[in-house]
Amino acid sequence: MELHTIGIDLGKTVFHLVGLNLSGEVVVRKKFSRKQLLHFTANRQVNLIGMEACGGSHFLGRALREQGHEVRLIPAQYVKPYVKTNKSDYIDAEAIAEAVARPSMRFVPIKSDDQLDLQSLHRVRERWVARRTAVINQIRGLLLERGITVRKGRCHIEAALPGILEDADTKLSGAVRLLLAQLQLELDHLQRRIDEADTVIKQTAGDNEACQRLVTIPGIGPVTATAVIAAIGNGAAFRRGREFAAWIGLVPREHSTGGKQKLLGISKRGNSYLRRLFVHGARAVLQQSAKQSPGLSAWLAHLTSRTHRNVAGVALANKLARMAWAVLAKKEPYRYPRLAAATTA
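Request: output the structure for the sequence above.
Response:
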């Protein structure tokens, strides 16, 4: 029995496999546990194995590569057009087997253990930051119900809350004071966890040569640099910087027809966490545009003179993403934009 392509529909404990021959005909339909699946593939010669990029796919992809197979991960939205009529696990696996063999298909690089560790740290830190914001907003909401207003921003609530709790003239009930004190403890606890995560990220960035090159780019610090490394590694999955910028949703959506090109707002596809980091970094650069290199400063001045500041921030984020890819993929240090090239843009 000849197997040319295999599609695997992943689950937590059960995996459905469909094998196609060279003509694209289904010759195998089987259901396995993870251990049974690895035993089955270890004794087979297969040209190509495809899976959807989801939870557990990177571990299984590395395990299959160690067996000598060529493994490719496909974004789930690219598999859907190949699903015929109804949905089942075997139909999904067959669709994956058909999609993975397409020459124009886009794939997700299989992450290493170090990349997954770094990505896990960023995801946990992101959840702590979101919880910290939620606690701050809840404190401000509780105080507003008692006629006490506090300015937006973590620094303002951290500075005002101790005085509010100690002030007897605020006329807060004992129950509310107790709740606010507990929320303050929760806020302090979350801040310590975030500070510890930031320390690990800074240490990782300092020990990684690629991160050291990335942090020389304006608007990119240790958090963004390590997030980029965790997401794309050395950037080899993209042929050019524009593909990376498109992958994180920083290029315009297009809805063209009848020979008329129509560009809309940014697509906001792909990695929303990376996109947010690049946009925040771009805004920080815009605030200090006069202190940047002459080439970048002139480019920003020309850009902000003809468009809204928010649009300029997203355009700069796109530019920073392309710079980051170039620094990673070409393994070269960051070079400041030349003034002549910036003024003619």
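The longest strand covers residues 26-32.
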